[in-house]
Amino acid sequence: MKILSVNVGLPREVTWQGKLVTTGIFKEPVKGPVIMRTLNLGGDGQADLTVHGGVSKAVYAYPSEHYAFWRAELPGMDLPWGMFGENFTTEGLLEEAVYIGDRFQIGETEIMITEPRMPCYKLGLKFGRADIIKRFLASRRTGFYFAVVREGMVSAGNSLKFIGREQQEISVADITRLYAFEKGDVKGMRRAIGVEALPESWKGYFRHQLEKQ
């Protein structure tokens, strides 16, 4: 398991569907080490902090393995590392096999998986096509967020060393499944609420869904 590319970018203004939008989704690969802090990587930023960033969304990772799928889905489109707005383009980590609360060491740093990425309209802006939002979610190839447990330097080529697991019942893929595909899975939602590392926003969402059952 390793990081193939570290990608950062500061928010910029762009025009989308006739409106001026500020977004941090444009990330570019960087060479050399980058400082990873509790809220983000050095040289990186998020535009709308009400839905992006924060302690539980400090670093966004996207599996490099998914790029082949998207190249087949979107023939002729250039898809460089960082295209999905990810900070880490990873190898060896997939949504079905990583669990909420899993911890990894990168050199002197430590990170913890917190939640999947849910697409917003800015993904459509990045790709220049609104249909990518539904296609992204339907593919279940969401990538995942990390919280930074211990700060330090990271760079492309670093290994991701698995060092601990809180539980093995709720994976990243399970959260996406419960949110978008199997909203009637009461047992699954109850298990998810019991996962300590799952952000409170997700627990509140699942509690609300259970109240409606």
Indicate the topology:
Elements: E1 2-8, E2 12-16, E3 19-23, E4 28-29, E5 34-36, E6 59-63, H1 67-73, E7 88-91, E8 103-106, E9 109-116, H2 121-127, H3 132-139, E10 144-150, E11 152-154, E12 161-164, H4 172-180, H5 186-193, H6 200-212
Parallel strand pairs: 6-7
Antiparallel strand pairs: 1-4, 1-7, 2-3, 5-11, 6-10, 8-9, 8-12, 9-10
Helix pairs in contact: 5-6
Protein model, in words:
- With 213 residues, the chain is of the alpha+beta class.
- Helix content is 24%, strand content 27%.
- The protein contains six helices and twelve strands.
- The protein has an eight-stranded mixed sheet. Strands 2-3 form a two-stranded antiparallel sheet. Strands 5-11 form a two-stranded antiparallel sheet.
- Strand 8 and strand 9 form a beta hairpin.
- Helix 5 runs antiparallel to helix 6.
- The longest helix has 13 residues.
- The radius of gyration is 17 Å and the shape is globular.
How would you write the strand order of the largest sheet?
Answer: 4-1-7-6-10-9-8-12
Structural class: alpha+beta
Tertiary shape: globular
**Approximately what portion of the residues adopt beta-strand conformation?**
25-35%
Element string (H = helix, E = strand): EEEEEEHEEEHHEEEHHH
